[in-house]
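User: Could you write out the 3D structure of this protein bound to magnesium ion? I've included everything you need below.
Assistant: Certainly. Input first, then the structure.
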Amino acid sequence: MNEAVEERAVAAYLGLAIGDALGATVEFMTPREIRAEYGVHDTIRGGGWLKLKSGEVTDDTTMALALGQSILEQGRVEALAVARAFDGWMRAKPVDIGNTVRRGILRFRQTGEACTPPNEHDAGNGACMRTLPVALATVHSDRNAVRAAALAQAHVTHNHPLSDAATVCVIEMVQAFLVGRSRAEVMHEQVYPLIEQYPPFRFRGGKPRENPSGYVVDTLQTVFQCFFDTDSFADCVVETVNRGGDADTTGAIAGMLAGACFGLEAIPAPWVRALNPAVREACERQARALIRLGDRSVTKHGPP
Ligand code: MG
Ligand code: MG
């Protein structure tokens, strides 16, 4: 087992939770409103439209934990088990839930099918935001197996080419960082190919993205701008959430990428301490268990 990989996995999971907790305070605010209220918003303090307690997280993190739990129980990414896990997650009355996620889970309750049919309205960021456990559990699997696992979890609620492409790309980026690739390498090997195939994801040459919606293209453009144009975990996450809009989700994705890239020592200790302790422990525990599963089950994640 490679300890450096495991540390980066923990950093990615804590990064996800920290970005979510920090961003939730300013979700749906504009950058101007954030400046008026906080100057630069860089403290985990709860509040926001969900009226969270300080250190509390939202669906981005809790859906990832539900997905990760299912993967650990099954020893692999199993679509039906993932659908049941999301169903149980919704029954537990999460603090928030996206429309596409709700529709997908209700559909599963009615049909028992874990794969929703293609839908032109499914290009939201809900499948991408929760996908970190798949990246960890398939870190050593081949590309086809990673893609199959990524889409099995995504299609429980979202079935759209842009959501699929974003989800697979974020997984491959995390995996590349876990094994020590640089940002320049990841830009060339993961991000440019995404943009070549799906030009809407272009994030250079325009104005900085502000108030990103839940559309996965808006989400990744914002995350890519903030992640590639800053040089530390803290700067990346602060820049991201201060762009407002779907800030908990952009924060969560930026945090997982920056955690995997910059590692555990790069995450400011006050943010780690500010997380709800149960959430922090669950993220750490799952990160280590999923990486160990990935070490053991290189070949298990093939197409069903
Ligand atoms: Mg959320
Ligand atoms: Mg959100």
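The longest helix spans residues 3-24.
User: Perfect, thank you.
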